[in-house]
Every structure is written in structure tokens, then in C-alpha cells.
Amino acid sequence: KGFINSNTAKREGGLSLDIDQHFKRPKLEFETFPPPIVIPTNLIHMPPTHIETAGAIMTAEDVASHREKFYQKLLGIPSDAVENYTPGLNQANLRSKAQLLDGIHIVKHWDTGADGLDAAAFRSKHKTWYTKMKPLSHKLGRRTGIHLRTAEPHHSPGGEGEIVLCRYSKDGSNSTAYLDLTQLYNALYEVHCFEHGHLRGKDAVKGRMDDLYANVPDSQVKIFLETCPVCVERRRMHHDA
Question: How far apart are CA 69 and CA 200, in angstroms?
Fold first, then answer.
């Protein structure tokens, strides 16, 4: 009593009962594939490979000293060892050059396969990239929709830029490039020392870095400013005044 099954076809008064209408069965919904990824068209800027100090506040010696202090405080290693340093799993925002090249290889061959593997086997081998490769519209966070772009050529107008690994900016409208560890100091120098003239604070530097790059967190900006000789001297003078 109290249950209705398909055998209950009649009720008192001769009224028939349509079981499907009485109990609306939920429609089965199958997951659809997300739409193809839309690649932004903004220019991709990469940091200079050489820092020009002519006419700048910091001398070449200041830059070399600052670079050394920055990497020592960030990684605990001398700056000339950064090229061969491989970040650990607990250093999520740091990438070596080799790690970025490996990422470029995976993204480039995600739909075709490579290394003697078809696309399915290639994806299975690199299964940790499934979330990263989903389009941004899949709403899984900014680390989705990883894609490749061609950066602006440096010091060679009309030349070809390098292929770089990118993800979306915070609002999803632009591509922002991943930096390897060897590029990090020059990128921060260009923004803080060159563009801002040592006159802007951490939030301004962080905001500008986020406009350009994908993997520069607050901690790296903070270390750069804490070791900047111009800012250190300015703080000292302010303290002594």
C-alpha cells in the first residue's frame, strides 16, 4: 500500500493512471565536450635577455650583486647555478627551462601524439595535463586552457619570436607567458627598476607582472624588493631621517 507500479493501471472510478506522467523520470544527461579553446591575440612580451644599465640608477655591479642576493634568498643557491636548478614539487610557481620545454612539447602534440605514441597513448602518458588542457570556459580555474603563443622578437624587428607556454590572464581575455627561473630576475628588473623607476611598491609591481606573466607570485616580488639596493638605501635614509 502506498506504492504504485506499472501493474496499477486502473483506479476507482475507472480513471487510468499514466505512470510516466505521474512520476516524471529525469532525463539522462551526457557530458558534452567543451568548445574548442579560443586563443587570445594580445602581444606576448618576454623579459630582455640582457639588462642595459647605461643611464640607469643601478650600475652593472649593482645589478650583479642584486641578482646574486635575489636568487640566494629565493632558492638558497648562487645565481650561476640557477640554469641547472630543478624546482621541487613544493615550488609550484617555479619552472626550469627544461620543464617549460617539456610543457611546450606536450601541448604541441596533445591532439596528434608524438614519441611513437598516438594521441590517446600520448595523453595517457601525460595524464596530469588533462585539467591543464581544458578550455578556460570549463571553469576549472586559471590553470586551465594552457596553450602556446609566439612571443615578440627581442632586438630583431621583423624576426621570429620564440614559442612560449601560456595560460590565461585573470579575466580570461589575454595570454600570459610562463617564465623559467633564469628569466625571473630580468622580468622583475624590467618592471620595477625600468618601468617604475624604483618608485612603485609591491602591489603595483605584482599587478604589472600579472599582466605579462603566468607564474610570478607575491613572494617572488617581495624578495626582489627586499633585496633591491636602491630600495634598501631609500628605506635606510627614511629610517634615519
Answer: 20
Between CA 219 and CA 73 the distance in angstroms is 11
pLDDT in tens, 53-111: 877 889 999 999 999 999 999 999 999 999 999 998 788 799 999 999 999 999 999 99
Beta bridge partners of residue 165, listed in sequence order: 148
Amino acid at 143: R
User: Is there a contact between 66 and 228 (Cβ–Cβ < 8 Å)?
Assistant: yes
Residue whose C-alpha is closest to residue 165's, from 180, 147, 141? 147
Residue 143 CB partners (closer than 8 Å, separation 6+) = 131, 132, 167
**Which residues in the chain come in under a pLDDT of 50?**
1-17, 19-20, 22-23, 28-34, 140-141, 156
Environment class of residue 81 by beta-carbon count within 10 Å: exposed (0-12), middle (13-18) or buried (19+)? Answer: exposed
